[in-house]
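User: Hey, quick favor. My workstation is busy. Could you predict this chain's structure for me?
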Amino acid sequence: YQALLSAMIANWRDQFDNDTLPAIVIQLPNFGAIPTGIEDSGWAAMRDAQQRAAVADEYTGVVITVDSADRTDLHPPNKRIVGLRAASVARGLMAGGEELTNGIVPLRAERKGDRVVVHFDPSGLPLTIAGSAGASGFELCGEDSGCRYAHAWLENQAVVIQAGGFEDASEVRHAWSDAPLVNLFGAQGLPVSSFRLEID
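Assistant: No problem, here it is.
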């Protein structure tokens, strides 16, 4: 999906004969049943691909919507939050400034003893957790052991995940469901959206 999205945007630019034509992607919202366990969500994978396509292209932005929808209606009536965020992305792409154009971007995950630490692009800081001491929706995945929820918290503006007893963990996933409940937010009040990272 990431490759197809990038190719479509490139085709538009060819048609308009403008290599720097700004493109704004409205990310898929939270839609579906509240997650009650680990799932392999294609919806989350598309959200991740949409953000990756934007990060890879300085003239493309993504509007984060993982917290914006009525999970029972794919096209909810309240468009205000999406419109305000889209306008902010447009200003960032076309006028520069402090507006985030790619949301809160995870950069890398690294193992440190019995923990995994996830680092984020500084432009999306500071991170905050709403309503809890821990960040919800984090999973660790291993090739042989599958995925499982993991306890996560903030330290020095990075997310720390307890990984003791899960030595074969090779990947971190966050908000990996169709309608995740997210409580990790960054700059401009934006939620951290669905992502997956290999663990270094």
